[in-house]
Amino acid sequence: MLALQTTYTSQTGQRKRNEDTCGYWTSDTACCWVVSDGAGGHGSGDVASQLVVNTTLTQFEAKPEVSEQVVTDLTTGAHSAVMEHKHRNPEGDDMHATVAVLLIDAGTRQAVWAHVGDTRIYLFRRRKIALQTRDHSLVQQLIDAGYGNEEIIRTHPQRNMLTSAIGSNDEMTISVSGTPILVEEGDLFLMCTDGWWEYLEEHVMEEMLEDATSAKEWLEVMAQRVESSAKENADNYTAVAIQVGELEEVTTVIR
Fold first, then answer.
1. Domain extent listing, the chain
2. Is the pLDDT of residue 242 over 50?
3. Phi, psi angles (nearest 5°) of residue 39
């Protein structure tokens, strides 16, 4: 049976309200983590992200199974909940949200995930990034088409424009991990909104993890970097770290 430890932070940044929401539900077998970044005027971004997280966790608690189909159903269920709320409140604005969902079966050691938008999931193995989701964003499309490299993803003036979102009237794209992967002792999953990863390049995440003794310590160090690097009117930021067992020992080689 896997030992799983969860650490998280969700902060307002320099905005008036926090439109990020995160949550998790765990049992001795199946476990679910979800992060959502809401958007919309008059506080409706709060409502959107809370609907996404609450709906996802409620659905999973009713059917705590880990599979590609289940994580897809959880995501479409969250989308339906936001769309239903919008239909019941036609006077409201066009609220929408991102979502990232991670499921782990602690018995079989299998993990699957899905995401919509630019809230990300990373898998760190032996303190290096082994897997990373790809954003549903205009800038990611530009990079894929050869109109720039990964460096523009944090600086482009249209970096916040999404090509898929929960609650959008357009057709929604869901990216799913596919065949479940087997997690290993020492693995770390990081789920984070764009207000977090915008100020932490991937090599910085790895460098900070090299010196960390736990997911909690790692998250605290990264949060300090986000706070110190944040610009005026910096976005909300949320990060959830899931540590599998104990981190492997760091070996320092003296030459």
1. 4-244
2. yes
3. -145, 150
Q: What angle do CA 21, 26, 28 make, to 5 degrees?
A: 170
Q: What is the pLDDT of residues 29-84, one digit of tens each?
A: 999 999 999 998 767 999 999 999 999 999 999 999 999 999 999 999 999 999 99
In contact, 78 and 35? CB cutoff 8 Å: no
Name the nearest CA neighbour of 182 among 103, 73, 75, 109: 109
Distance between CA 159 and CA 14 in Å, rounded?
19
CATH of 4-244, one of 3.90.1210.10, 3.60.40.10, 3.40.50.300, 3.40.190.10: 3.60.40.10
Q: pTM higher than 0.85 for the full model?
A: yes
Residue 252 has pLDDT above 90, yes or no: no
